[in-house]
C-alpha cells in the first residue's frame, strides 16, 4: 500500500483531534476533518454525526486512510455508547469498505482491558494478547471496535491499526498516568507509523510513550516503526509528592483502568 496522504480525521474537534490537527500536517498529511461539533477556523470541516451514513460515505470518498477518533470518550449510558461508538464505528467501517478505503487507525483505549492488574515489580509487562476485560460500557465499545476491525480485515481486506491509547494529554496529571501517558509528540509518531507501515492487516498496539513506569509491552507498536521519544518520569517527583505512590489495596490503583473501574467520569452530553 502506498504511503497515505489524504487522511480523514474523525473527532477532529476533540482534545486528541485538536492535538493531531496541529502535529500531523508536518508529516505531510492533507487532513480532512469531521466532527459532530463545528470547528472554529475550519470552514471546510464536515459537521456530521456518526449516525449519518450518507455524510460518512461522502467524507471518506477519495481519502487514503482514516484516523477514527470520534465518539464518546468517557462512560455513558449503553444507548448513547451504542449510537456513537458501536453503531457509529460500524457506519464508518461500512462507508470505508464501500468507498474502497484501505486503512483505518482506530482509537481504542486502555479501558478495553481496564480490569487487568498492573504488573508488580519484576512481573512481565502486559502483553498485547492479554484477555480483554472492559471496565465500562465505554471500554466494551472499544473491545467491539477491535473485533469489528478484525472482521473487516478477514472478510474485506480493510486494514486497521487499533491503538489502545493510554492517556494522551499535554502532561500526565496522576501517578497512574505516569505508566500509561502518551505525549502528543509520540501520539503523532505512532499515528504516522500506523498510517505508513506495510501489511498491518489488523494490528493491535498499546499507545504510550516509553515511560519508565510502563505497564505494557510496546513490541507491536515498535513493529510498525514507532520509536517513542518521551518518558513521563520527568513529572513523577511532583505527582508522587502530591498524590503518593499507587496503593495496590486501593481498587482505583489495583486496576489498569484506574477510577473507571469504580467511579468512571461520565460523558456530559
Ligand atoms: P474528546 O471527547 O475530546 O473528543 C471526541 C470527539 O468526538 C468530540 O469532539 C465529539 O464531538 C466527537 N463525537 C462524539 N460523538 C460523536 C458522534 N456521534 N458523531 C461525530 N462526532 C462525535 O476525546 P479525545 O480525548 O479527543 O479522544 C479521542 C478518541 O481517542 C476517542 O475515541 C477516545 O475514546 C480515544 N481515547 C482517547 C484517550 C486520551 O487519552 N485522550 C485515551 C484512550 C482513548
Ligand atoms: C480514555 O479512554 C479516555 O478517553 C481519556 O479521557 C482518559 O480518561 C484515558 O482513557 C485514561 O485512561 O487516562
What characteristics describe this protein?
single chain; about 270 residues; alpha/beta; Rossmann fold; seven-stranded parallel beta sheet; globular; binds 1,4-dihydronicotinamide adenine dinucleotide; binds D-galactaro-1,5-lactone
Through-space gap between termini: 39 Å
Strand content: 5-15%
* Small molecules (ligands, ions, cofactors) in the structure: 1,4-dihydronicotinamide adenine dinucleotide, D-galactaro-1,5-lactone
Provide the number of structural domains.
1
Counting DSSP E segments of at least 2 residues, the number of strands comes to 7
Write down the overall mean pLDDT. Answer: 97
CATH topology term:
Rossmann fold
Low-confidence stretches: none
Write a structural description.
Helix content is 33%, strand content 14%. With 269 residues, the protein is an alpha/beta fold. The protein has a single domain, classed as NAD(P)-binding Rossmann-like Domain (Rossmann fold, 3-Layer(aba) Sandwich). It has a 7-stranded parallel β-sheet with strand order 3-2-1-4-5-6-7, with helices on both faces. α1 (15-23) links the parallel β1 and β2. The radius of gyration is 18 Å and the shape is globular. The structure holds 1,4-dihydronicotinamide adenine dinucleotide and D-galactaro-1,5-lactone. D-galactaro-1,5-lactone binds at residues 73, 109-111, 167, 177. Residues 73, 109-111, 167, 177 line the site of D-galactaro-1,5-lactone.
